[in-house]
TrEMBL record, chain A:
Entry-linked InterPro entries: AP_complex_ssu, AP_mu_sigma_su, Longin-like_dom_sf
Matching Pfam families: Clat_adaptor_s
GO BP field: intracellular protein transport
Recorded family membership: Belongs to the adaptor complexes small subunit family.
GO-annotated cellular components: cytoplasm; endomembrane system
The entry's keywords: Membrane, Protein transport, Transport
Organism: Oldenlandia corymbosa var. corymbosa
Taxonomic path: Eukaryota, Viridiplantae, Streptophyta, Embryophyta, Tracheophyta
Protein's name in the database: AP complex subunit sigma
Location relative to the cell: Endomembrane system
Domain AP complex mu/sigma subunit: 3-142
Membrane in keyword set: yes
Main subcellular location: membrane
UniProtKB/TrEMBL annotation, chain B:
GO BP annotations, alphabetical order: intracellular protein transport; vesicle-mediated transport
UniProt-listed PROSITE patterns: GAE
SUPFAM superfamilies hit by this protein: ARM repeat (SSF48371), Clathrin adaptor appendage domain (SSF49348)
Name used for this protein in its record: AP-1 complex subunit gamma
Similarity-based family: Belongs to the adaptor complexes large subunit family.
Topology in the lipid bilayer: Peripheral membrane protein
Residue ranges of domain GAE in the record: 749-866
Function (record text): Subunit of clathrin-associated adaptor protein complex 1 that plays a role in protein sorting at the trans-Golgi network and early endosomes (TGN/EE). The AP complexes mediate both the recruitment of clathrin to membranes and the recognition of sorting signals within the cytosolic tails of transmembrane cargo molecules.
One Gene Ontology cellular component annotation held by this UniProt entry: AP-1 adaptor complex
Pfam families per UniProt: Adaptin_N (PF01602), Alpha_adaptinC2 (PF02883)
Compartments (UniProt record): Cytoplasmic vesicle, Clathrin-coated vesicle membrane; Golgi apparatus
Key words, A-Z: Cytoplasmic vesicle, Golgi apparatus, Membrane, Protein transport, Transport
Length: 143, 869
C-alpha cells in the first residue's frame, strides 16, 4: 500500500479535502495536517516537491491557491505520485472546468467520488480520465 | 428528491463556516449543526439523511467528532436507491474505520450489494470493502471477491483485484485462493485491470512464497512481454502522459519484475533485455519518463547481478544528480542510498556532487545528501569529507545544525584514524556548534582525552585557545573547564609541546581567568557552573599562589540560591582555606577512565541509575553503572517486560502500598519520593488501576490477595475460611485501610517498642517517638540485629508504605552487620501519617544482605504498630 493519505489544502492552510487510507484518530489527523501544512507551505517554488515528515514522505504540488499533498511510504515512486497529482487535477478540471477551491468545497462528495475511482486502499486503480468520470457523469445524467 | 442537487442547506452550512472569523465562531456553528443533525437522526428523518451525511463528512474533514452519524451510514447503505447507497458508502469510508464494531453490522449489506444486479452498486460495495474491511469481513466475503475477479465488466475486475489485496493482507491464509485468478488478470488488455492485477500479483508474492514461486515460473515471461508491448505500444490518448504510454503501468510492471528477479538468476536473466531497453529508450526530459527511469534503476539495483545493466543504472543516476530539477536530484540521492550496498565504488565517484548537495538550500535535499555522505565515509576518505562537513557547519542554517553536528560527531567517533585528529575535529565541532552536541558525545570526548596521556598538554592548550574565542558554546566550555582543572599545570608549564603547536604563554592567573569568565557568564547553566567550581578547586591545588584569588571567586557562590552550587562553594572554600595539608592529595588528577567500559555502557544505554544509594548506602559508582541487583528489581516491578507469576505478585503488592498518583512532594520528603519513584518505575498507571481494586475488594478477590501476601509474609494460612483474623496480614492490611483507631494519643507520649520482624537470622526492632507539636509524624529508630554467627555485608533495609503515609529514610549507621548480635545497625525512619487518628501505620519491608558472599533477601509486613501512631 503506497498512498497513506491525500489532502487538499488552501493557501491559508485550511483543509479542503482529506482522505486517509490508514487509521488515525481525529486528534492525530488534526495534528498531522497542521504539521505538514506548515512545513510544505513554507517552502519555495524552487525547492523540491518532497518533504519527509515522521515516517511519511509528503509529495506535494501547488495549483494556484490550492496545495495537493499526498503522503506515501518509503517504497513509493515519488515522481509517479507527482504525475498522479497532476492526473487528479486534470480529471477534476475536465469535470468542473478549470477546477478551483470552491468547486471542491461545495462539491466535496463529487471530489471524493472521483478520488474513489482513482485510488482504492492506497493503490491507484484507474488512470484514464474518461473511465474515472464515467460513473459520475452517469449519475448526474440520471438525476 | 436528489441528494446532490438539493444541497442548499449543505451549501448554507459551508458558507456560514467559511464566514467564521475565529475558531470559536466555527466551533459554535459546528455545534449548532451537529445538534440539528442529532435531532434529525433521533427522529429517523429519511428525507434529509443524505444531506446530513454530506454535512457530517464536511464536519469530519474539519476535524470534529462525528461518531454519532455512524449508524446513519449503515441505514443509508441499506436503502434501495443508488444515490442513497452512494453517499452511504462514501460516508462509511470516511467516518468509520475497521476498528469500529459498527462495521460488523454492515457486512451483510455489503454482501448483498456484491451480488447486486446493478454493476455500479457492486462497484461501490467493492470499493468500500477494499478501503475498510477488517479480518472478519475479509474471511466472510473473500468468496464473493474471488468470483468478482472474473466479472464481465473490467471496471469491476479492477476493483475486485484491489479488494483482494486488502483481503490477503488481513488474512494471509487466503492468499492461495487468489493466486490463479490473479495470474489470469495479467492476460487482460484493459489498463485498469492490468494495473491492479500486477499490483495484486506483487502483493501476493510478498505474502506467500508459494505465490512467488508460481508467478516466477508462470508469469515472468508474460510480464516481460507486457512491459515490452507497453514500451513499444502506439499512441493511446487515454493513457498517454507526455508521449509515454501509461507510465503508471510501466512502474507497476517494473516493481513486479523486481520482486520476481530478486534472488533468482534465471528470472533476472530473462528481464535483462527489456530493462536495458527501458533504461536506454525512455525519454528523460519529462517527469513521467524520469519516473519510469527511476523505477527501472531501482529494479536493476535489486535483481541479480548483471554488471552491464548496473553501469547503465549508475549512469542514469549520475545524470539525475546533475539535473537542474530539484525533484530529480532528490530521487537520485534517494536511489544512491540503495545503490551504495550494491556498488559503493560507483557511488563514490559522485562524492563531490553529493557533498555539494549537503550544502543545498533545500532542506529535503540536504537531509538526503547528508545521510548519503554518512554512508559514503570510510577510513580512506574520512579526513577530507569531515573537513568539508565541518567547514559547512560554520555557514549552515540553525535548524540543520543539529542533524549535521550529530552526524559529524558520529563519523569522527567511528572513523578517526588517530586520537589527535579526533580531538582536533571534536574541538572544531564544539567551537562551531557546541550547543548542539549531545551530552554523551562530550562525555566520550573527555574519556578519550584522559586516555591520551601524551596529548594532555596539547589538548588543554588547544582548548584554552578556542574557549577564548568561542566561549558561548556551552559544551565546549564544559570540556575546556574540565581539562583546565585537570591539566592546568601542563597549560602553564608548556608540558609535552608537539612540534605542530604554536608556542603559547599562559600564566597561572590566565588559567584562573578563563574559568572565572566561564562561571560568571550569565548563560552558564548549573552543570557548567558546578564544573567550574570543581575546576577552581583543582586549580587551587595546582597553583598555590592563586589560591587566595580562587577562594574569593568560590566565596561568591556561598550564597548561591542553587543548592548544588552553594554546597560546593562552601565545602570547596573550606578545603582551600582550612585543609591545605590534604588539598593536594584531594585534587589529584582523575584516574583514567576505561574507554571500553565507557563505550560498552554507552552502547548498552543503561537506564539511569535509580538512586537507591540515598535510601541505603549502597556502593554505587558515581552516576550509573551496575544499578541494582536483580531481586530488588523484581520486587519493585522495575521495568519488568514479561512478568512471571512471581513478578505479578510483587507488582500487585507494591500497588497496594504505593498510590497510582504520587503524593505531593514536601520539601523534606525527597527520600520518600525517591522511594515512591522507585516503586512505581515501570508500572504503567493502567496496571495500577486494575490491580488496586483487586486488593481493596476482599469479597471478590480475597483468595488471590491472600495468596499474594502469603508468598511474602510467611506464617499465614492460605485458605480463606481458616484465617485467624489477628495473624492474617491481609486482614491487618485491610484494617490499616478501613478501621478508625480509637484513641488518638497526646503528643510526645511514649510508645512501646516492638519487634517488627524476626526470622531465624535477623531481628528488627522499632522504637517510636514523636516530636512535640507534630502528632502526625512518628520517628522510628530501627535496630537490626544479626542472630547468626556470620556477619552480613551490603546490608540494605527498604520499606514501602501506603499512599496516606509518607516515609523518609535516613542513611543507616552502617552496611555491615556483625555476627551474634555483637553490634547492630540502626536507621532512622520518619513516617508522616496524613490520616492520623483514622488509620494506623502499616509497612512493607525488605532486607537484603550478603552472607558469605551469598545474597539473602528477607521480606515481611509490619502491621502490629502500637495504636495511635
Amino acid at each position: 500500500m503506497g498512498i497513506r493519505f491525500i489532502l487538499m489544502v488552501n493557501k491559508q492552510g485550511q483543509t479542503r479535502l482529506a482522505q486517509y487510507y490508514e487509521y488515525l484518530t481525529i486528534e492525530e489527523r488534526r495534528a498531522l495536517e497542521g504539521e505538514i501544512v506548515r512545513k510544505c507551505l513554507a517552502r519555495t517554488e524552487q525547492q523540491c516537491s518532497f518533504v519527509e515528515h515522521r515516517n511519511y514522505k509528503i509529495v506535494y504540488r501547488r495549483y494556484a491557491s490550492l496545495f495537493f499533498l499526498v503522503g506515501v511510504d518509503n517504497e513509493e515512486n515519488e515522481l509517479a505520485i507527482l504525475e498522479f497529482i497532476h492526473l487528479l487535477v486534470e480529471t477534476m478540471d475536465r469535470h468542473f472546468g478549470n477546477v478551483c477551491e470552491l468547486d471542491i468545497m461545495f462539491h466535496l462528495e463529487k471530489a471524493h467520488f472521483m478520488l474513489e475511482e482513482m485510488v482504492m486502499n492506497g493503490c491507484i486503480v484507474e488512470t484514464s480520465k474518461s473511465n474515472i468520470l464515467a460513473p459520475i457523469q452517469l449519475m448526474e445524467k440520471a438525476s | 428528491m436528489n441528494p446532490f442537487s438539493s444541497g442548499t442547506r449543505l451549501r448554507d452550512m459551508i458558507r456560514s463556516i467559511r464566514a467564521c472569523k475565529t475558531a470559536a465562531e466555527e466551533r459554535a456553528v459546528i455545534r449548532k449543526e451537529c445538534a440539528a443533525i442529532r435531532a434529525a437522526i433521533s427522529e429517523n428523518d429519511q428525507d434529509y439523511r443524505h444531506r446530513n451525511l454530506a454535512k457530517l463528512m464536511f464536519i469530519h474533514m474539519l476535524g470534529y467528532p462525528t461518531h454519532f452519524g455512524q449508524m446513519e451510514c449503515l441505514k443509508s447503505i441499506a436503502s434501495p436507491g443508488f444515490p442513497e447507497k452512494r453517499i452511504g458508502y462514501l460516508a462509511l469510508m470516511l467516518l468509520l474505520d475497521e476498528r469500529q464494531e459498527v462495521l460488523m453490522l454492515v457486512t451483510n449489506s455489503i454482501k448483498q450489494d456484491l451480488n447486486h444486479t446493478n454493476q455500479y452498486i457492486v462497484g461501490l460495495a467493492l470499493c468500500a470493502l477494499g478501503n475498510i474491511c477488517s479480518a472478519e469481513m475479509a474471511r466472510d466475503l473473500a468468496p464473493e471477491v474471488e468470483r468478482l475477479l472474473q466479472f464481465r465488466d473490467p471496471n469491476i475486475r479492477k476493483k475486485a483485484a484491489l479488494c483482494a489485496i486488502r483481503i490477503v493482507k488481513k488474512v494471509p491464509d487466503l492468499a492461495e485462493n487468489f493466486i490463479n485468478p490473479a495470474a489470469s488478470l495479467l492476460k487482460e488488455k484493459h489498463h485498469g485491470v492490468l494495473l491492479t492485477g500486477v499490483q495484486l500479483c506483487t502483493d501476493l508474492c510478498k505474502i506467500s512464497d508459494d505465490a512467488l514461486e508460481y508467478f516466477r515460473k508462470k508469469c515472468t515471461d508474460g510480464s516481460v512481454k507486457l512491459l515490452r508491448d507497453l514500451a513499444n505500444s502506439p499512441y493511446a490518448p487515454e493513457y498517454d502522459i507526455s508521449g509515454i504510454a501509461d507510465p503508471f503501468l510501466h512502474i507497476r510492471l517494473l516493481k513486479f519484475l523486481r520482486v520476481l528477479g530478486q534472488g533468482n538468476v534465471d528470472a533476472s536473466d530473462s528481464m535483462n533485455d527489456i530493462l536495458a531497453q527501458v533504461a536506454t529508450k525512455t525519454e528523460s526530459n519529462k517527469n513521467a519518463g524520469n519516473a519510469i527511469l527511476y523505477e527501472c534503476v531501482a529494479t536493476i539495483m535489486s535483481i541479480e547481478d548483471s554488471s552491464g545493466l548496473r553501469v547503465l543504472a549508475i549512469n542514469i543516476l549520475g545524470r539525475f544528480l546533475s539535473n537542474r530539477d530539484n525533484n530529480i536530484r532528490y530521487v537520485a540521492l534517494n536511489m544512491l542510498m540503495k545503490a551504495i550496498t550494491v556498488d559503493s565504488q560507483a557511488v563514490q565517484r559522485h562524492r563531490t556532487t553529493i557533498l555539494e548537495c549537503v550544502k543545498d538550500s533545500d532542506a529535503s535535499i540536504r537531509k538526503r545528501a547528508l545521510e548519503l555522505v554518512y554512508l559514503l565515509i570510510n577510513e580512506s576518505n574520512v579526513k577530507p569529507l569531515t573537513k568539508e562537513l565541518i567547514d559547512y557547519l560554520e555557514v549552515s542554517e540553525p535548524e540543520f545544525r543539529g542533524d549535521l553536528t550529530a552526524k559529524i560527531c558520529s563519523i569522527v567517533e567511528r572513523f578517526s584514524p588517530d586520537k589527535i585528529w579526533y580531538i582536533d575535529q571534536m574541538l572544531k565541532v564544539l567551537s562551531e556548534a557546541g550547543n548542539y552536541v549531545k551530552d554523551d558525545v562530550w562525555h566520550a570526548l573527555i574519556v578519550v582525552i584522559t586516555n591520551a596521556s601524551h596529548l594532555h598538554g596539547y589538548t588543554v592548550r588547544s582548548l584554552f585557545r578556542v574557549v577564548q574565542t568561542a566561549g558561548d558554546q556551552e559544551t565546549l566550555v564544559r570540556v575546556g573547564v574540565w581539562c583546565i582543572g585537570e591539566y592546568g599545570d601542563m597549560l602553564v608549564n608548556n608540558t609535552g609541546v608537539l612540534h605542530i603547536e604554536e608556542p603559547l604563554t599562559v600564566t597561572e592567573s590566565d588559567a584562573v581567568d578563563i574559568v572565572e569568565t566561564a562561571i560568571k557568564r550569565h548563560s552558564a547553566d548549573l552543570t557548567t557552573r558546578a564544573m567550574c567550581l570543581v575546576a577552581l578547586l583543582k586549580l587551587s591545588g595546582r597553583f598555590p599562589a592563586c589560591s587566595q584569588r580562587i577562594n574569593d571567586i568560590v566565596n561568591q557562590y556561598k550564597g548561591s540560591l542553587v543548592l548544588e552550587l552553594q554546597q560546593r562553594a562552601i565545602e570547596f572554600s573550606s578545603v582551600v582555606d582550612k585543609h591545605k595539608n590534604i588539598r593536594s592529595t584531594l585534587v589529584e588528577r582523575m584516574p583514567v577512565l576505561d574507554e571500553d567500559t565507557f563505550s560498552g555502557r554507552r552502547a548498552g544505554s543503561v537506564p539511569a541509575a535509580v538512586s537507591t544509594s540515598k535510601v541505603a548506602p549502597l556502593d554505587l559508582p558515581n552516576g550509573g553503572g551496575k544499578v541494582i541487583d536483580a531481586p530488588l528489581i523484581d520486587l519493585l516491578g522495575f521495568d519488568v517486560p514479561e512478568p512471571t507469576p512471581d513478578h505479578d505478585n510483587h507488582h500487585n503488592l507494591i500497588n497496594v502500598n504505593v498510590s497510582p498518583t504520587s503524593s505531593p512532594p514536601g520539601p523534606n520528603h525527597a527520600h520518600n519520593d525517591l522511594l515512591m519513584d522507585l516503586l512505581t518505575i515501570g508500572t504503567p498507571p493502567a496496571q495500577n488501576s486494575s490491580s488496586v481494586p483487586d486488593i481493596l475488594s476482599p469479597n471478590q478477590d480475597k483468595l488471590s490477595s491472600i495468596n499474594i501476601l502469603d508468598q511474602l509474609s510467611s506464617p499465614a494460612a492460605s485458605v480463606e475460611g481458616k484465617i485467624p483474623p489477628a495473624s492474617s496480614p491481609m486482614l491487618d492490611l485491610m484494617d490499616g485501610f478501613g478501621d478508625s483507631p480509637s484513641n488518638p494519643q497526646d503528643n510526645g507520649s511514649a510508645y512501646p517498642s516492638i519487634t517488627a520482624f524476626e526470622s531465624s537470622s535477623l531481628r528488627v526492632t522499632f522504637n517510636f517517638s514523636k516530636q512535640p507539636g507534630n502528632p502526625q509524624t512518628t520517628i522510628i529508630e530501627a535496630n537490626f540485629e544479626n542472630k547468626t554467627s556470620n556477619s552480613y555485608t551490603d546490608f540494605i533495609f527498604q520499606a514501602a508504605v501506603p499512599k496516606f503515609l509518607q516515609l523518609h529514610l535516613d542513611p543507616a549507621s552502617s552496611n555491615v552487620l556483625p555476627s551474634n548480635g555483637n553490634g547492630s545497625i540502626s536507621q532512622r525512619l520518619r513516617i508522616t501519617n496524613s490520616q492520623h487518628g483514622k488509620k494506623s501505620l502499616v509497612m512493607k519491608m525488605r532486607i537484603g544482605y550478603k552472607m558469605n558472599n551469598k545474597e539473602v533477601l528477607e521480606e515481611g509486613q509490619i502491621s502490629k504498630f502500637p495504636p495511635g501512631l
